[in-house]
Design a protein that fits this description.
Blueprint: E1 3-5, H1 8-17, H2 20-31, H3 47-53, H4 63-75, H5 78-96, E2 105-111, H6 117-120, E3 126-129, E4 135-140, H7 144-148, H8 150-163, H9 178-201, H10 213-221, H11 231-236, H12 238-243, H13 255-271, H14 283-294
Parallel strand pairs: 1-2, 2-4
Antiparallel strand pairs: 3-4
């Protein structure tokens, strides 16, 4: 298994210094090695459009703030730190589950968009995706809290990658439930906490509502909801749902992360397993065990 962290820093420097008319082509070339993360999308994907939709740095404004932010990521050693963290995390995971299939992984690190109100506000300057085996997408604005959590964020996404790799949990769009994503977020956080502790291991998005019983009860009501278009509100909250054209359900930002952590912690406490050992556990088992424990 090979982990390839694409050295996107020089390319982003070039893009941010290039004439505006040349930037889209340069960005497309930078993104091309990670285009496989969109392999399940119908038809040909416009990589530049996906970059914009994913809160990637803008091509037509905010050049100076973006240049400064990029240097902050560089000075924080983001690329080598993430590479080392993924290698260490993989070793821990393989020690716990030596027989799993591990894909080669390509890691795309990009700078976020300082003019995106949702990204800089409710999303706390970070978006990421590790759900497509073989690819990790990590998008940061260098808030100090995000720089402190570079390793934990990457490890969280690696856990998703390994959970859904060949031989692991099957994400079937026709039948997958909110409960599966909520549990997967809780497991990924638990794995990051196993390596980095609670202070850094929790995804920041879910921390404010970890102990909110009303949020817990509301998300538990929706664990059986299907239809991936509905997941955003239940997992990321109403502000994310509004941003991406989904229907709000009355939940704050990060609600699904908070509830996923509570469910997973209850399951791990009941079974004595570590997060690494629970990589491929069925989400229904986690939910049933956790709810029975809290009844």
């Amino acid at each position: 298994m090979t982990i390839t962290v694409l050295d996107t820093c020089p390319a982003m420097r070039d893009i941010l210094r290039a004439p505006p008319a040349d930037r889209a082509a340069l960005l497309r070339a930078m993104l091309a090695p990670a285009a496989g993360m969109y392999r399940y999308f119908p038809g040909e994907v416009d990589l530049v459009a996906m970059h914009r939709m994913g809160s990637g740095f803008p091509l037509d404004r905010d050049e100076e703030p973006c240049r400064e932010a990029l240097e902050a990521l560089h000075d924080a050693d983001a690329w080598p730190r993430i590479e080392h963290a993924l290698e260490d995390a993989l070793a821990v995971q393989l020690a716990a589950t030596p027989g799993i299939t591990v894909p080669d992984v390509t890691v795309l690190i990009v700078l976020g968009d300082p003019g995106d109100a949702y990204f800089m506000g409710p999303a706390l300057g970070m978006t990421a995706n590790g759900s497509v085996p073989g690819y990790l997408f990590l998008n940061f604005w260098p808030y100090p809290e995000n720089l402190a959590r570079l390793e934990a964020t990457a490890v969280h996404e690696l856990h998703h990658n390994l959970r859904y790799a060949e031989g692991g949990v099957v994400w079937d769009p026709a039948t997958v439930t909110v409960g599966e994503q909520v549990v997967s977020e809780g497991l990924a956080d638990a794995f990051a906490r196993q390596l980095y502790g609670d202070e850094l291991g929790y995804a920041r998005l879910g921390v404010p509502h970890l102990h909110d019983d009303a949020v817990f009860a509301k998300v538990v009501e929706g664990l059986g909801v299907t239809g991936m278009r509905n997941f955003t509100a239940w997992v990321h909250g109403d502000e994310a749902a509004a941003r991406f054209g989904a229907t709000p359900v009355g939940l704050p930002a990060g609600a699904g992360y908070a509830v996923g952590n509570r469910l997973v912690d209850a399951y791990l406490a009941a079974t004595g397993r570590s997060a690494a050992e629970a990589l491929h556990v069925d989400s229904r088992e986690v939910i049933e065990t956790a709810l029975a424990r809290s009844a």
